Amino acid sequence: MAGVLNGAKAYQAQKRVDMSMMVERYAPLVKRIALHLKARLPASVELDDLIQSGMIGLMNAVTKYEDGHGAAFETYASIRIRGSMIDEMRQSDWAPRSVHQNTRSITNAISKLSHKFGRAPTDLEIASELGVDLDKYNQMLMDSSSNQMIGIEDLGVTDDVIAEGGDNSKDKLFDILATSSFKKSLAEAISKLPEREQQVLALYYDEELNLKEIGRVLDLSESRICQLLSQSMARLRSMLKDWTTM
Question: Given a cut of 90, is residue 5 above it in pLDDT?
Fold first, then answer.
């Protein structure tokens, strides 16, 4: 019996050592994700707060990850890290409720018009559907852009699901992202965006340029790039909304 107990203690001790090594190894991933999110958030959001919440997500990932998940640990950990950061921001209530409502309204309007026209609606058409002028619509996009805290790879689950569902939602999100069919749907959705929005997404996510740098490349103002990015995310959410019910 003593031998069994000693073996169990040794196993637990080794497991703690292994977990500690994993956390240390992937700590730079937390900072990388935090920096990427920080670029999209209000100045009042502290980088250290994002990193702190992200480390909690990393530790949860280390604890819950199993090889049978079907994807690399870094992929699984990234989802949990980002999810923990989003949870922290939601709890801080940094964005007014009206911003979240406007984001949903834009997505719904785009979805309705896309089905009606069989193509991507224009800015003017979306503004008209929302019952606002173009200037007001552009301001809604600007406000909504600070609410785009999740990455393009997370569009299979809405902000509300991530915010309210806890660990079960993060598991659901991972299950979705682990499927090749979601990745295929995402690629198809991006290909249906207006060309300028595809360019903005490519420069922002693939080339990792900031809004000012993208503006220089495309000869547009930083505010216009912000609007295009926000609008492209709304279009993608509209096209991928069926994934949220899976």
Answer: no
Architecture of the domain spanning 97-151+185-246: Up-down Bundle (1.20)
Q: What whole-number distance in Å separates Cα of residue 156 and Cα of residue 138?
A: 25
Rounding to the nearest 10 degrees, give the CA dihedral for residues 226, 233, 146, 103. Answer: 120
Q: What is the mean pLDDT of residues 99-118?
A: 89
Whole-number average pLDDT of the chain: 76
Domain 1-94 classification at class level: mainly alpha
Domain boundaries along the sequence of the chain: 1-94, 97-151+185-246
The distance from CA 227 to its chain's CA centroid, rounded to whole angstroms, is 17
Mean pLDDT for 2-7 is 52
Give residue 117's pLDDT.
Answer: 92
pTM over 0.70: no
For CA atoms 159, 161, 166, 168, give the dihedral sign: negative
